[in-house]
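Page 47, continued from p. 46.
Same chain as before, 311 aa.
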Amino acid sequence: MLKPLDSPEKTIRLIAEVSGAGQQDVRRRLIAEAEEIGTNVYEMMKAQSIPLYVPSEKLDNFYREADGFLYETTVWNTCQAKQHMRDFISSRLQALGRQQAQIFCFGDGLGFDSAYLASLGHHVRYFEPSLRCQQYAETVFRDNDVSVTTLSSLDDIQPGSLDVVVCLDVLEHVPDPQSLIRLFRSWLRPDGLLFVHAPFWFIHWTRPTHLKQNKWLSGSMKRMYSDCGFRAVDASLFWDPILLTPKENNSVSLKSLLSAFRIHAGRLLLSLGRGYSGIHMAIARRIARPPQAWVNLLKQSATAEVPQQSG
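Result:
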């Protein structure tokens, strides 16, 4: 794992530093998050009376200022499912001969995707609206000894300047996700690549910031991507993630029947989530679990902190 995830103790200290909370409280909340990802964000939204699953000014402010995402995204980045996404991206970049690429990680939270891609030799730019996540990410970049450029404004990106855009677990939070896809298209070079993961179907108490209004986009190739100027090149089975390129780019193709199967099977499976998504959520919640060894270290440390009663 990337630092500080290689040590629960270092992770606790960093969250405490960024959030201003005590380490014992951070540990307690991190353990709760490890038991069920999304717990901290949900409890904070309920406490602040922020409506769930709908856009609002309160929600915008929550994204910028709340510390709940520090716990959610920390735990998510320890999960095997998240490592799979990074492996997919790096293997496709290698297969397509993309070395030292100009990559933009949009909404990269704690910066782990940016740090990972920078460690492979790519030129990475990072953008994230959460102030606390930005602070956390700067430490991630420093401790992993990677060079990542943090952008303060999207105006810093010139049209047609990027080789790759990575957007994982962001679009389901956005009121108009197609507008972002069109923006990504404008930033990419004609032979550029776009990696996306967007579980629009995942409307559950553990994901209270996912917008119900986007659920109809689950599995939609035409409305989400084709109408915005992209075509699919490859995908994991549940589009976690899916790889796209501008329609006019005929030079990028992995030419694999298995890739075509995953793209079309994923479209079918995800489109079913527009209606009943209970099975999807059960699978997603199961795979979004941190390694048990990591959780055990958290709990052992918590037990050690409890003062022993004498006599």
